[in-house]
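4.2 Preliminary Data

To establish feasibility before requesting continued support, the project team ran the inverse folding procedure on a target of 218 residues. The structure was first converted into the token representation described in Section 3, and no sequence information of any kind was made available to the design step. The complete token record follows.
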């Protein structure tokens, strides 16, 4: 029978070395676990940090709705201008045409809005084009139309009534002695889809300028 050689007993130094290695491994493992936990925590903390950063810098505004309208810092609240509204029709246009309010007081730089109402009293579709004019004449240089039915032809079916808004701004550089502006619109009949190929007498060309009613100019 083969006898195994007897193993020499472990020395106290070897036992001490092995215990030290085990202890070092445990310390290293604990450090790795702490570092891993900190990395996960930092990753989660980045989410609100990134959202706040985007909110402050506006980076994420492309995909997020902005409910705050920019303030108009050019409104001159130290003065007011009265804008009077007038409506006229070329004699051959079978419409009724009027503003729903005769005047509106605004501060220069402030957006104003007024509604005009037009009705077609003819038994056929009619297309019209509105031409604006101003009183006094120099007011036209300081009157900015943001939205206006005069930008496009308006075609109304027989008996149709339509309300059309106009949004405007009076430039703050308007001379200080001008306190009232008269905005006048004159509608002319023009060729529309229903009038294509009709007689030239069915349409009327609008003049380049229309004089505003002088009785309303102050």
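Position-by-position output of the design step:
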């Amino acid at each position: 029978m083969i006898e195994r050689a007897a193993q020499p007993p472990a020395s106290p130094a070897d036992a001490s070395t092995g215990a030290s290695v085990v202890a070092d491994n445990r310390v290293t493992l604990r450090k790795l676990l702490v570092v891993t936990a900190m990395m996960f925590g930092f990753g989660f903390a980045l989410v609100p940090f990134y959202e706040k950063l985007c909110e402050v810098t506006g980076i994420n505004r492309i995909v997020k709705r902005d409910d705050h309208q920019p303030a108009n810092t050019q409104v001159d609240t130290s003065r007011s201008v009265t804008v009077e509204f007038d409506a006229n029709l070329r004699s051959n246009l079978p419409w009724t045409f009027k503003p729903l309010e005769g005047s509106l007081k605004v501060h220069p730089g402030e957006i104003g809005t007024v509604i005009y109402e037009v009705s077609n009293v003819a038994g056929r579709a009619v297309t019209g084009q509105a031409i604006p004019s101003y009183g006094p004449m120099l007011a036209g240089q300081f009157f900015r139309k943001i939205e206006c039915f005069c930008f496009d032809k308006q075609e109304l079916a027989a008996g149709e009534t339509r309300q059309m808004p106009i949004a405007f701004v009076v430039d703050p550089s308007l001379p200080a002695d001008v306190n009232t502006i008269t905005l006048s619109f004159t509608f002319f009949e023009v060729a529309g889809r229903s009038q294509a190929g009709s007689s030239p007498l069915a349409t009327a060309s609008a003049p380049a300028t229309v004089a505003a009613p002088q009785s309303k100019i102050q």
